[in-house]
Write a structure and sequence with these properties.
By secondary structure, the chain is of the alpha/beta class. The chain has 14 helices and 22 strands. The longest helix is centred in the N-terminal third of the chain and has 25 residues. The protein starts with 10 loop residues before the first strand and ends in a 5-residue tail after the last helix.
Length: about 475
């Protein structure tokens, strides 16, 4: 028997099948609602088909290439293994980009199918098509086969995502000038890839293609890469980038990107010209809210087009919620999914707490990775003195030495008076996994002493987390 918490409000229409859409659909179905999800492409949305899943699959291959290329300190040799000094003309490891991208597309398609099957098993009606708001709680649907109809809903969730921002002076052509959604059709590794934009997306792809063996130039308009991340972490990453041969052009702005006979020409604002084989434009994204009918439904947006929502994902229109990159909240798949769940819990009367951005962990999938949660270095600089911080370098960690990890650290922030853990940063291999105990500590308001008294495996990289906590102990 279905458990409908509020039988009077049980018809849910969800526009968009990305993480915010499909996760909200599963929650609504679990709570007994009649759920219809409309997605113009395939379930999973751009997060699965052209964004998160493909990029992190590419990065997984790049991580292995880094491990291989930097394995000489561990005694690994390539070429003629019988020689103390291997023949440089011997067999070399190289990236087969056609095979890599084929695997990426296959995995993305498999994940999209798994999501669709999961929705159907849960009782969600998943429809391929487009949808537009034509009034309060009224949706006009046009299916892929041309069928048109109108739906009345008790609750509507907008999870329409975003698309790459394009500049009129650097128009993508899917061949040489590319957005991050177009990379997965390349058959050969670019000889020289210029990445314009040093935010998370730009840094991740620059790191990945550098690891795969391409010459990479990273154009950053700011003083450093990853201007929105922890300063110490960004400094470590930029140092690693340069040590691996990447050309980091700081305080440089790309003015134009033009096709040439055999590649591209990137012209910087100061007149410098950078010839290359390919250019990736990673200059932000734009929400897919144009033409959605938001004004007719009374949904307010920012000048950027992002939908305004509150802590439980409500828009300014009664009964209409929004989640994911189309909103002005953090553009993370995990946040989109949580926004969608919260929306359905709230709309259908289940127990719910507002979204707490302070507890959201995020990760930059470069090599090394950078993971953060809670309180930041910027917050620390503006603190009144009751906040303390400690940084433990991974270079002193026994497991890190075994793995020849020389770059990275663990940083913790805590309140001096209470010892409560406010946030942290991890820079190193698998930082995305290592951040979890710090996230748990922030979420549950644990103290540095409680974290320090937790047993860490020896040797392990996580031992540096408990070491940092011990260093923040204040004697009674």
């Amino acid at each position: 028997m279905k458990n409908v918490l509020d039988p009077s409000q049980n018809r849910v229409v969800i526009i968009g099948g990305g993480p915010g859409g499909y996760e909200s659909a599963l929650v609504a179905a679990q709570l007994g609602a009649d759920v219809m999800l409309i997605e113009r492409e395939r379930c999973g949305g751009s997060a699965v088909l052209t964004d998160v899943v493909p990029s992190k699959t590419l990065i997984a291959t790049a991580e292995l290439m880094v491990d291989i290329s930097e394995s000489s300190a561990l005694g690994i040799r390539f070429g003629n293994s019988d020689k103390a000094d291997p023949d440089p003309a011997g067999p070399l490891v190289h990236a087969d980009l056609a095979a890599i991208n084929r695997r990426i597309r296959d995995l993305a398609n498999a994940q999209a199918s798994d999501i669709y099957d999961g929705l159907v098993r849960s009782g969600v009606k998943a429809i391929k098509g487009t949808a537009t708001l034509v009034g309060p709680r009224t949706v006009q649907v046009v299916e892929a086969d041309g069928a048109e109809y109108t739906l009345e809903a008790d609750t509507i969730l907008l999870a329409v995502g975003a698309h790459p921002r394009e500049l009129p002076t650097a128009v993508p052509d899917s061949e040489r000038i590319l957005t991050w959604t177009q990379l997965y059709e390349l058959d050969k590794l670019p000889e020289h890839l210029v990445v314009v934009g040093s935010g998370v997306t730009g840094a991740e792809f620059a790191s990945a293609y550098n690891a795969l063996g391409a010459k990479v130039s990273l154009v950053s308009s700011r003083d450093r890469v990853l201007p929105g991340e922890d300063e110490d972490a960004a400094e470590v990453l930029e140092k690693v980038f340069r040590s691996r041969g990447m050309n980091v052009l700081s305080r440089s702005r790309a003015e134009t990107v033009e096709r040439t006979e055999d590649g591209v020409l990137v012209t910087l604002a100061d007149g410098r010209k950078v010839p290359a084989s390919h250019c990736l434009m990673a200059v932000g994204s734009i929400p897919n809210t144009e033409g959605l009918g938001l004004e007719a439904a009374g949904v307010r947006t920012l000048d950027s087009g992002h939908i305004v929502v509150d802590g439980v994902s409500r828009t300014t229109a009664p009964g209409i919620y929004a989640a994911g990159d189309c909103t002005s909240v953090l553009p993370l798949a995990s946040v989109a999914a949580m926004q969608g769940r919260i929306a359905m819990w709230h709309a259908l009367g289940d127990a719910v707490s507002p979204l707490k951005l302070r507890n959201v962990a995020s990760n930059v999938f470069t090599a090394p990775e950078i993971a953060t949660v809670g309180y930041t270095q910027s917050d620390y600089k503006q603190s009144t003195g009751d906040v303390v911080s400690v940084t433990v370098s991974l270079s002193t960690n026994a497991r890190a030495k075994m793995q020849d990890v020389t770059d990275g650290f663990v940083k913790l922030f805590s309140r001096k008076s209470s010892g409560s853990i406010l946030g942290g940063v991890v820079v190193g291999p698998r930082a995305s996994e290592l951040i979890l105990p710090i996230t748990t500590a922030v979420e549950n308001r644990l103290t540095v002493d409680q974290l320090a008294q937790s047993f860490a495996v020896y040797p392990s990289l996580s031992g540096s987390i408990t070491e940092a906590a011990r260093k923040l102990h204040t004697p009674n």
